[in-house]
Please model this.
Amino acid sequence: MTLEEKLGQLQQFDGEASGNYRPEHRDLVRKGLLGSTLNVRGAQRTNELQRIAVEESRLKIPVLFGFDVIHGYRTIFPVPLGEASSWDPAVAERSASIAAAEARAAGVHWTFAPMVDIARDARWGRIVEGAGEDPYLGSIMARARVRGFQGRDYSAPDKVLACAKHWVAYGAAEGGRDYNTTDMSETTLREIYFPPFKAAVDEGVGTFMSAFNDLNGVPASANPFTLTKVLRGEWKFDGFVVSDYTAVQELMQHGVAANEEEAAQLALNAGVDMEMVSRLYNKHGAELLRTGQVSQTTIDEAVRRILRIKFRLGLFERPYADESRERAVVFSAANVAAARDTASRSMVLLKNDGNVLPISKNIKSIAVIGPLADDQVDMLGPWNGDGNAADVVTLLAGIKAKAPPSTKIIRYAKGCDIEGDSTQGFDEAVVAARASDVVVVAVGESAAMSGEASSRSSLDLPGRQLDLVKALQATGKPVVVVLMNGRPLAISWMAQNSAAILETWFAGNQAGNAIADVLFGDVNPGGKLPVTFPRSVGQEPLYYNHMNTGRPPDPNSKWTSKYLDIPWTPLFPFGYGLSYTQFRLSNLQVSATRIRPDGRVTVSVEVENVGVRGGDEVVQLYIRDVAASVTRPVRELKGFQRVTLPPGTKRRLEFNLGPEQLGFYNREMRFVVEPGEFKVMVGNSSADPHELVASFEVQK
Ligand code: BGC
Model:
């Protein structure tokens, strides 16, 4: 390969918003100067450009087509934060696998997913793209998603290459403001932010994306510690790293590169193999090599990593997409059915006083109210691939399908907009509510209020939506609040005053059908929050696995860690979610009272459905290292199982704890299990008042 051709393999360019390639791409591909594109998709278009690479370029190296397939390609599943609420890695794997099959059929080889950033601050808009705040749940979901996208062999016609992003600590942006600085200890990096990425590597993820943020003074896209020492050295990652969009060029804005040459030099030498959109490697690579600022080995290694992945994808053997396959695979009835199932498994019942839910199928009339009640666009959430709003079943449509208007009166009123001050629609909504047996009100955020560059300083329901809920509740009718949103919201008033609240996130194509399944009891909700809901934005960042401090909050003592104006506790804790039935945990057993640092214990517990309908419970196991050489979290999730139990049945669940779960990074950054007492807590949330507690001792 000539140097030019090598640098060409390191270059990725963006297509048109429509999914087409740009005219200049043809020429670049013909000359062997463009290794990859993003956003170019569709079997026919990708084939057109591929034909030029394979038939007209000197070396015939196929183009690698990337695209953000985040929660579905054309069949849109719940947003990732919603899907993580299922606490069900099998459904996450299935939706990634369906997304992969659709994308590959449409000529896409590579998805920029899963996004595995831990997010402890609900203001950050991109919290919607990940699995929430916890490294353990995040790791399980990361593995499931990588497995779903890539399978065992991503050269298969229904698999795509995955990309763990954004490496790293992007979710810790100060103030929750997107792209902002991150600054944290190596301990926090290793214990909280790294694990889902490590899990992705363990699952064989083919690529990483280097993030936009600066981390402890060194931008993540020029950070030799994270990109080379940890990723390549410690974890033996042998795939390639792509920069985030123009992140190489942004090294100049960060103020670590004085000019373009320096930006390219820093990123390449740190370990960023492919440059997304900016073209500094291409422009300055030859000069950097000539002056010895970048070595031939570094360039060759980056090229080798990219070509290796192209070989693994089978692109040299099968460069083209099959246009007839695309039509059969994309948005098939089976895929749509899976989206409905996934959506209903992702919903979290936050409140259900007096068993307002499920709604009886015998009621005569129902009022469906709210700015999101008949909204197709927002149900797709941010990053919705090739999703089409016309495919979306709204809540109103879902309720109509479940409760035919021939047998029921269904009254719809929008009430108000998501944002804005107008209350003009309130009267109509209140009239509809008064005339109906039950009211379902859909409120929340627009899809554009979360996602990239969509941070908020308030976590309140925007606009006049809360006033709308209040006006409806003033009618005295039973009101069910259906939340649709991409982040935790501060909904204290509703948590106190509304009878029923169902968190549905942005549930995708089948949102309305899936919500109706839950509202009418055909599906018993079993999701749990993957992220803490605060009482007020002022509590952020707020997360369950915090340290105890020297002065843990005590209601009876002023000089302890809390607020003057609100309780320190969350509104809804991590891991929380109700069901239409009740479960009881009992008989917690730990297999040993003493183990060695390299030993293991088995923890077992019985879970029983003590209610009258079948349902799912997510049994959660937390540990606490009571006294160690460094402070340890008050609790850490180390195991969970989602089980389905018919009424009156019980099951014994087992969890295994060993060094991977009990260890931590000590002051010397060594991963160790230290002697001393460990507490084991098993419950149905991170703050279950009925949780069972046991302990064991680690002895030298
Ligand atoms: C985002 C990435 C995304 C990329 C390509 C960037 O702005 O941060 O998450 O994969 O664009 O669309």
